[in-house]
Predict the 3D structure of the following.
Amino acid sequence: MKIVNSNQQEEYREFLKQIRKEREGSSNFAKLLFTLVLALLCAVVVCVTIFENSYFLNKITASNPDLSGIFKSKRRQNDFQVPFSPRRQNILLLGVDSNGEGADLWEGTRSDTIMVVNIDPRTHTIKAISIPRDSKVYLPDNKGIQKINSAHALGGVNLVKKTLKETFGIKIDKYIIVHDEAVEKIVDALGGIPIYVEKPMRYHDWAGHLHIDLKKGNTVLNGKQAVGYLRYRKDGLGDIGRTQRQQWFLKSVFEKLHSPQILAKLPDILNICHTYVKTDMNLYELSQYATFARSVDENKIEIATLPGAPNQKGYISYWILDPQKTQEVIDRMIYRDKIEADVTKFRAGIMYSPLKETEAQAIETQLKELGFEVHMLKITHLSHSKFVANKNDVSMDFYNWIQKKIPAVNKMQFIYDPTENFSVGSDFTIVLAEG
């Protein structure tokens, strides 16, 4: 077994420490990717279920006459036809913050979560790019050099779309905006979310009105507790631990949304989504996109974050995008460029938690039998398990092939990360975490 040396281990610990330090002062809720996805998921699942259940359709349209026109023209269609051409499309997802109690939900709000989802109806695949909120860009319409999350505050969704087009060459077809107050209200409407709290969590921020007091063990989180669980970061892991909790929480939400009891809660959830979700799609279109998403194999979903590095200018911290690597991500995720490669030359890496050592050794043996050079690294604290492509020529097709050869890596989240943060001198890395 090849083990990277102690200097490399210490370097990786310092990397995690630096990431936590750079993010410590940033907004810590609206930017959370899976918080946005949670609220969005609730909205689209509601739409699909409404169309599939005429009883609730009649009940909702009776109490909301302005919605009847949307359903009326489409109700006779029994099968779902995706409301877009076979060409690929880019859906913009924004999570916006609050300007304080009593303020308008949308006007002047920053988009602290920015995500572009590229869908391909022909291959039934999804690729998603997360754009760091502090990315330093030039905003169109003479708005000057700003953080990209200022675009929504200064010019609404139209300025965000224009910025993406002129800065990255990404044309947006549709958009969905979710307010950060949606999660608490949706969780309460669902009757709470069952979760296993992995450790005692206690934290009080009187200025930020955040109070967390959760005991270890199985519990059902109400809305305020769910927000606290998702925001908690005082465990030495910062955003890394919080991302892992988002994964566990989202899994529980998935299970709850698929329970039969959800039908009785549809009117309340729909009203919440009507208030806290803004989009240029009507409910029928949302339901069609949801149906498409539900038909996609989870092994055909790829995500990436635009690569760069933090930079401080006075009191302002920016994320300085790496031009070359950013273009590589966009070419791969938006334009679907493919690079032919000799997969037998790939170097494999395995990062694993101490309790996953036996599983890591088994995967190492299987990789070596396939002819790969393997490097391993034991890390005390790791986020959720995942398969990381460190090089541009490590494709989703390659990952699907590895899954067939090594079943233990099935259903891992596929991440493209050209910064090689999760790498042990490897072209692809299998991360084995306890969660």
User: Anything to note?
Assistant: Residues 49 and 237 are 38 Å apart (CA to CA). The chain has two domains: 6-26+338-432, 33-182+260-333.
